[in-house]
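User: Hi! I have a protein structure encoded as tokens and I'd like to know what sequence might fold into it. I'm fairly new to this, so please keep things simple.
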């Protein structure tokens, strides 16, 4: 959460700071701000709301200066207003922060006892005030180092100093920070995406590192202030990353991109001539894995849940799933014969990253399924499986979900094959069906017109329910999550078989109930559960690949999907559910790419 940018240059920086903040808005968008140094003054501008408001402020009162820092906020301490927006500046120093200072209350109390006055309710301001004291007697590097020692929690920081109009200091502990290099200009940023339009040469700070940059050079220091070197990476050239083209917003673009992202992912891993899945350099023996534990948050967790069914179906391995924020605090019995798989679009989610760190400490086998290959989770795991979905900008995850499921589908199939748990013929048949998936997804997206009609039913509803069994149960959870995060309507996902154990009490006349029922072994059971809902007045949207007209009686809408292969049904049914959440949100005039209270990259726990 929160995005940081810093630029040291030989020309004015405020325009590039604004442009970078616009790219970082996916990390938080409830307030924005920047500070530059000009004529020996700190020039601070900030506002609540979006970067576009900050841009308007700058239009009226420009912030001059060849060095500056900027911030987009996702509020943790203090409401999203102007006073709490970053940077937090004193007379002599200005700070932007991503993360949480856990001992901020104690530090604040100590500072107040010394007579210091706080202007905001944030945890960040303690850093500003501590630094202000330290700078009276120390160099910027020593002042920062000695301040960081007092802080508990996680942070990425960008700091500028009134007396040093050519210097930015960055620091990292637990929250990501990248450094970018260019001619006569150097940068810090929360991620490479924010820096990509200015440079493709990047280094990443590790926990405990401090960087000192001017326009001409960058120096790195470790926890003990020893100078260290960092690898400089060259970023891949992603074209059209921030362009929504003719689409209304990124989310609908990303929904319709899914057939292409699926194709790219399949081409990356599938050898069509040999009908085989290429996973190179697998760093363990598939036959010796006793148990798989899949870990993630939110939508990524839902892809883990779907994958549990696949691993159980295609392999003889025991499988568990875990929510990262729970896993990291439980008393886990780690086992060296287990494989711990971490799923994360951003690769920066704090809970998932901490769960991975715990596994590393316990020296067990780890693997990550990520979209951002330069991310912390990718760098910290033993083995990385990139989903190749390209940058996902809409806060609600769509194409990354499909990419995560694809990778996990291929992984479970390959594991089954390597262990001799599935026959070659079955393995290759599943691969040849998988190759057809991108074209089938195009067909599934053609349901949009009908979904637009269905969406109207949700306008006046109190809430809704999503039901499924087997592979379709996690898809029901994901459908409900998408609807609630985008439309702010209450939505619940349940295994259809659980209804009579409580949730059936919620069914009343006209309540929209989405039933996901492909023609798999659960089909007739799910349809019976659906009848129980109809009998109590529920208004049904049935999503199925069955053409049985009798089934559709008393059903308000039926979305007919093509049939591909039972185990691939989660990919197909996810399409109309994403479209449904999108169209309900559109009718309700929600901010689709940036739903309220959320952020794309959840870097606080
Ligand atoms: C929902 C959504 C979130 C993320 C979750 C994990 O649409 O996007 O639930 O899936 O915050 O994020 P990553 O995958 O980046 O770890």
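Assistant: Happy to help. Inverse folding works backwards from shape to sequence: for each of the 605 positions I chose a residue that suits the local structure. Here it is:
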């Amino acid at each position: 959460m929160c995005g940081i940018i810093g630029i040291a240059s030989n020309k004015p920086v405020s325009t590039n700071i604004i442009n970078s903040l616009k790219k970082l808005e996916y990390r938080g968008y409830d307030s924005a701000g920047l500070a530059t140094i000009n004529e020996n003054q700190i020039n601070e501008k900030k506002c609540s709301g979006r970067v576009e408001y900050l841009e308007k402020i700058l239009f009226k009162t420009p912030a001059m200066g060849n060095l500056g820092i900027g911030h987009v906020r996702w509020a943790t301490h203090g409401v999203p207003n102007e006073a709490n927006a970053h940077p937090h500046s004193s007379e002599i120093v200005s700070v932007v922060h991503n993360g949480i200072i856990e001992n901020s209350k104690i530090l604040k109390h100590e500072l107040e006892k010394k007579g210091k006055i706080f202007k905001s309710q944030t945890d960040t301001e303690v850093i500003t005030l501590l630094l202000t004291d330290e700078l009276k007697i120390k160099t910027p590097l020593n002042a920062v180092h000695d301040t960081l020692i007092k802080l508990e929690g996680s942070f990425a920081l960008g700091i500028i100093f009134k007396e040093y109009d050519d210097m930015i200091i960055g620091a990292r502990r637990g929250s990501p920070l990248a450094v970018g290099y260019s001619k006569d200009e150097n940068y810090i940023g929360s991620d490479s995406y924010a820096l990509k339009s200015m440079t493709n040469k990047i280094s990443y700070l590790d926990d405990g590192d401090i960087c000192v940059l001017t326009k001409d050079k960058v120096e790195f220091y470790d926890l003990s202030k020893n100078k260290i070197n960092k690898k400089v990476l060259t970023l891949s050239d992603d074209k059209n990353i921030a362009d929504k083209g003719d689409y209304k917003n990124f989310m609908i673009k990303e929904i319709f991109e899914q057939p292409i992202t699926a194709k790219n992912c399949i081409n990356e891993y599938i050898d069509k001539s040999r009908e085989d899945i290429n996973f190179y350099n697998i760093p363990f023996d598939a036959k010796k894995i006793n148990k798989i534990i899949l870990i993630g948050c939110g939508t990524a967790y839902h892809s883990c849940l779907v994958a549990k069914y696949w691993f159980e179906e295609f392999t003889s391995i025991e499988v568990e799933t875990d929510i990262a924020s729970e896993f990291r605090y439980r008393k886990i019995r780690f086992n060296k014969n287990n494989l711990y798989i971490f799923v994360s679009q951003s690769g920066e989610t704090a809970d998932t990253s901490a769960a991975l760190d715990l596994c590393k400490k316990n020296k067990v086998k780890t693997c990550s399924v990520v979209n951002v290959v330069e991310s912390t989770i990718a760098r910290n795991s033993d083995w990385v499986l990139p989903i190749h979905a390209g940058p996902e900008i809409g806060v609600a995850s769509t194409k990354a979900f499909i990419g995560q499921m694809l990778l996990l589908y291929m992984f479970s199939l390959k594991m089954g094959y390597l262990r001799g748990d599935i026959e070659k013929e079955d393995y290759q048949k599943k691969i040849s069906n998988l190759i057809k998936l991108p074209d089938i997804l195009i067909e599934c997206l053609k349901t949009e017109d009908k979904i637009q009609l269905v969406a109207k039913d949700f306008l006046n509803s109190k809430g809704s329910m999503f039901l499924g069994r087997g592979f379709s149960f996690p898809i029901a959870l994901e459908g409900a999550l998408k609807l609630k995060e985008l439309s702010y309507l209450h939505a619940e996902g349940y295994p259809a078989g659980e209804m009579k154990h409580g949730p059936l009490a919620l069914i009343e006349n006209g309540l929209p109930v989405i039933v996901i029922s492909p023609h798999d072994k659960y089909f007739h059971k799910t349809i019976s559960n659906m009848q129980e809902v109809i009998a109590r007045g529920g208004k049904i949207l049935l999503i199925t690949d069955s053409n049985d007209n009798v089934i559709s009686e008393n059903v308000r809408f039926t979305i007919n999907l093509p049939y591909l292969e039972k185990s691939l049904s989660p990919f197909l049914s996810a399409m109309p559910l994403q479209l449904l959440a999108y169209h309900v949100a559109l009718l309700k005039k929600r901010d689709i790419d940036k739903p309220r209270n959320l952020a794309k990259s959840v870097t606080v726990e």
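A useful reference point when you look it over: The pocket of fructose -6-phosphate is lined by residues 297-300, 344-346, 349, 352, 396-397, 481, 485, 602 (CB under 6 Å). Feel free to ask if any position seems puzzling.
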